[in-house]
Amino acid sequence: MSIQIFVEGKIAPKGEFLRPLEGRNSAELLGRHLYLSLVGEVIPRALLDHLGLSKMLLGASSGSSFLLLLPQEFQSQSEAFLRLTAAGIDQIAAGELEFNWAITENLGDWSVVRKRLFEEMQRGMGTKATQESFLPIATSQAGADQSYFSALANAAPTATTVGVDDADPSRFEFGESKYNYKLGYDMDSLPWTAHLDLSNLRRRKGAAMTVAVDALEIRLRRASSIEEHLGLSHLYKNFFAGELQTLLLRLPDCTGKIAIIDSGIEGFTVYGDIDALLKVSQEIQRLFQTMAEVSLNETAGAEGKTISAALAAGEQAAAVAEASAALKLAQASSRDSIFMFGRVLDWKQVPDALDIRELCLRMIRNYGASPQFVSELSAFFRESGYQSLRRKTGRFERPWRLYRRLSLALETESESRDFERTRNRLLAEFIGKNAGQTRLRPSGRVGLELTRISINA
Predict the structure, then answer these.
(1) Which end of the chain has less Cβ packing within 10 Å, N or C?
(2) What whole-number distance in Å separates Cα of residue 343 and Cα of residue 324?
(3) Which residue, 108, 37, 60, 71, is CA-closest to 229?
């Protein structure tokens, strides 16, 4: 009986692969996200077809990684195929995508095998010094294949299959080729979520949202067996692939308002109407929490049991890049939270921000308050950008100033008892239910920004 080998691959962007640089249009940026979400699914399947082996040897796959179990006699052919793929990826992405792999024998406990794979992967990620490393660097280097990424984005909305040729396994296309794979949700298909056309979306209300599992790599490394590792991989992957598509069809007022940029084992990125994104984020967090309580209740540690998100308003390409960068900062600051408008909120604080928006809009629409008070109240929140991720909001030493400024800003001709009640509720939302509390709540800033967006819509 021949020895079996594990083949693990990882694909990760580096440099400016996903950044909205000058000269990159929205179609090209979307194509880059599509490529990154599918390349880890296509490569292992193409390798198995190239070797003439069963699809059952594919253990786990996502856009960014895969794990195969192969007979050892196919190791040299596999390495040649992977080297060819790596060269093709490097050419397509102009060195902005890194593809590394590790191969080791299936000998010993899984923890030992996992360690060998990790060490081999780390060696592959290191700089390999060769004779050419000491030659002068050429100043004229070919850029990424912009037309290829744009073609992927244009063909995505109607795509049903993806094809690849083993002569160039890194360059797959939507359509027919030597090896073809269905896109969908059945057992024999690559996981695929429809990418909707949002050309009618009002850009000033558009936003991007990225959702990811907290400390997923740590959770996977703690798996005590290969069966547990594969079970966790399929659990996360199937959750996001299935629940996201279901939410877009089930939640009211979300149909046709959200486009899926990418989705995988780690999470997903979407773009669309801000109100629809907030509904999806709260519902996906609730469902994930329920799933974790049921499926991961017997596992130790909090890693992999929570999700975090980041939301950034603006045009699609810029907003997607900003949301991805903000998510990393948010997870470094606090897990199980969402980043919006320069603030990190616990999930339970999101309804507070929405309540503040509703109260502000009621003051404007029902009682004739000037919309200018939103800007006046925003002045109390002096931090901007990502400062709140690095330090906590300082004490608000003079809360009476907020009361006085809000009273002046909300002066109207008819101040009924209901008006006074609404204004007091709004003040309580900013400073807290406890009269002795002297810190401005982060949900206040988020609520004001949401109000501003609703007013300008």
Answers:
(1) N
(2) 15
(3) 60
* Class of residue 434 by CB neighbours under 10 A (exposed 0-12, middle 13-18, buried 19+): exposed
Q: Distance (Å, rounded) from C-alpha 106 to C-alpha 121?
A: 16
Give me the helix-helix angle, 274-295 and 350-365, nearest 10°: 150
d(CA 29, CA 39): 15
Residue found by looking up tokens 């809360």 in the block: 399
Nearest to 207 by CA among 109, 323, 96, 301: 323
Please, are residues 300 and 281 in contact by the beta-carbon 8 Å criterion? no
Higher pLDDT, 154 or 405: 154
Q: What is the pLDDT of residues 418-444, one digit of tens each?
A: 777 777 777 777 766 555 555 667 788
Q: Nearest to residue 67, comparing CAs of 75, 59, 78? A: 59
CA distance to 12, 64, 364, 387, per residue, from 321 (Å):
15, 17, 34, 19
**CA–CA distance, 254 with 247 (Å, rounded to integer):** 8
Identify which of 437, 276, 443, 287 has the alpha carbon closest to the alpha carbon of residue 351: 443
d(CA 265, CA 118): 19
Percent of the chain topping pLDDT 90: 37
Q: Whole-angstrom Cα distance, residue 349 to residue 200?
A: 31
The two structure tokens encoding residue 239: 């959750």
**pLDDT category of residue 301 using cuts at 50, 70 and 90:** confident
